[in-house]
């Protein structure tokens, strides 16, 4: 088989406050995060949004010690996976490729080439597939493969999603049981799954399987947990004015407070490491919302990080993937049709020339409005809550 490598894909996060702005630029420059009808608008808009948003975002990172712990945790996961694979007799080097911050996917691929890896397993650290996460990283890899003949010497297989892996489900259930037992009456606790949201149009227009995989994942966890506790699934971290998957976490918490729920256990479901949205958004912002709504005991299940059962599950996924015949990126699910632009407006490709002219004009008007906002500090993005 030759030298084996595992490429763990993840989002990346700013390690210090100075990184926040360029990190946000990289994120908003990704057409899988904001899709615009004209690619030339992508970078100017990313520059604008990152310039206008970074201070608010920095304040959030300041509340969790001045940076994201994502790199440190992902490195610990990679090391634990390498060790576990060696224990079960599968020698492999594990690499980390982040989408928006160091170590970037490009850095991982350079190391994979340097190490003369012959067989690669591409394993995203997102249990559920979304166009905006794993899909975006796959697209970057596919482009690299197209451009670089040396990469085409590497046989690879892809694990597009693994929300139903028994080891992952078991590790989640272990953590939930541990936290439930800390409540004075575990049977009375309301279990609250909080998944990272995506715009509703990703599912409706582009055929993103994300929502369906999240729903199935929560069902599998509840089935394996095998308890009678009530549970809710809601979606957090909405950005911008468009409709995202519902119910929103904030609204669902208020609703449960109104119903008289006092004990609540939050389970972050779409990400396997602690990061800003667990440490700041859930632990600080949503806790406040819940307490104001009358929820007295608000607790959270920790992220899996290097939980041994979880690392074992990753090792198993790797071994299973190595048994498969080499694949291509074309075999990975992709959007059914072009997505609406973001902020989502009706957009169809193959329009008439007149419509294209009008869309171009509207884009220019929008761009000028953004410039005005940048100079004045007030404008449409503040109004709609994107900044
Ligand atoms: C499965 C997880 C994630 C999905 C789906 C996702 C989609 C998505 N995210 C944004 C916008 C932002 N995301 C930001 C940070 C961020 N996002 C995820 C995960 C998912 N995103 C993580 C783990 C992190 C944080 C990493 C860290 O630093 O710890 C941010 C920046 C933070 C902020 O300013 O709030 C933005 C912005 C969109 C628009 C989107 C779907 C289209
Ligand atoms: Fe995000
Ligand atoms: Fe987010």
UniProtKB/TrEMBL annotation:
Reactions it catalyzes: Fe-coproporphyrin III + 2 H(+) = coproporphyrin III + Fe(2+); heme b + 2 H(+) = protoporphyrin IX + Fe(2+)
Alphabetical list of Gene3D superfamilies matching this protein: 3.40.50.1400
Biological process, per Gene Ontology: heme biosynthetic process
Pathway: Porphyrin-containing compound metabolism; protoheme biosynthesis; protoheme from protoporphyrin-IX: step 1/1
Record's GO cellular component terms: cytoplasm
Matching Pfam families: Ferrochelatase (PF00762)
Annotated keywords: Cytoplasm, Heme biosynthesis, Iron, Lyase, Metal-binding, Porphyrin biosynthesis
InterPro entries: Ferrochelatase (IPR001015), Ferrochelatase_AS (IPR019772), Ferrochelatase_C (IPR033644), Ferrochelatase_N (IPR033659)
Compartments it resides in: Cytoplasm
Enzyme Commission number(s): 4.98.1.1
The organism's place on the tree of life at top rank: Bacteria
Keyword Acyltransferase: no
Family to which this protein belongs: Belongs to the ferrochelatase family.
Function recorded in the entry: Catalyzes the ferrous insertion into protoporphyrin IX.
Descriptive protein name: Ferrochelatase
Gene from which the chain derives: hemH
């Amino acid at each position: 088989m030759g030298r084996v490598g595992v490429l763990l894909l993840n989002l990346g996060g700013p390690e210090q406050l100075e990184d926040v702005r360029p990190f946000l630029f990289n994120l908003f420059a990704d057409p899988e995060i904001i899709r615009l009808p004209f690619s030339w608008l992508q970078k100017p808009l990313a520059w604008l949004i990152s310039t206008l948003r970074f201070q608010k975002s920095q304040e959030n990172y300041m509340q969790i010690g001045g940076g994201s712990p994502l790199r440190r945790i992902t490195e610990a996961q990679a090391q634990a996976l390498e060790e576990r694979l060696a224990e079960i007799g599968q020698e492999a080097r594990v690499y980390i490729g982040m989408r928006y911050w160091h170590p970037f996917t490009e850095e991982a691929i350079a190391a994979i080439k340097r190490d003369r890896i012959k067989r690669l397993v591409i394993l995203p650290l997102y249990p559920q597939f979304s166009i905006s996460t794993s899909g975006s990283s796959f697209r970057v890899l596919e482009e690299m493969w197209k451009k670089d003949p040396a990469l085409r010497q590497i046989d690879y297989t892809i694990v597009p999603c693994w929300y139903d892996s028994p080891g992952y489900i078991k590790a989640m259930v272990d953590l939930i049981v541990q936290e439930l037992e800390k409540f004075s009456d575990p049977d009375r606790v309301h279990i609250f799954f909080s998944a990272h949201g995506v715009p509703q149009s990703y599912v409706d227009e582009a055929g993103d399987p994300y929502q369906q995989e999240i729903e199935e994942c929560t069902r599998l966890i509840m089935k394996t947990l095998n308890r009678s506790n009530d549970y809710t699934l809601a979606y957090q971290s909405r950005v911008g004015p468009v409709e995202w998957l519902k119910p929103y976490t904030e609204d669902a918490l208020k609703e449960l407070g109104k119903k008289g729920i006092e004990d609540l256990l939050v389970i972050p479901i779409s990400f396997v490491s602690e990061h800003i949205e667990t440490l700041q958004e859930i632990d600080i912002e949503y806790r406040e919302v819940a307490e104001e709504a009358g929820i007295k005991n608000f607790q959270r299940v920790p992220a899996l990080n290097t939980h041994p059962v979880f690392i074992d599950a990753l090792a198993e996924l790797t071994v299973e993937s190595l048994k498969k015949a080499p694949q291509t990126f074309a075999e990975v699910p992709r959007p059914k049709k072009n997505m609406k632009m973001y902020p989502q407006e009706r957009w169809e490709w193959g329009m008439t020339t007149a419509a294209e002219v009008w869309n171009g004009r509207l884009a220019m008007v929008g761009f000028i409005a953004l410039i005005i906002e940048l100079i004045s500090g007030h404008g449409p993005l503040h109004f709609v809550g994107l900044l």
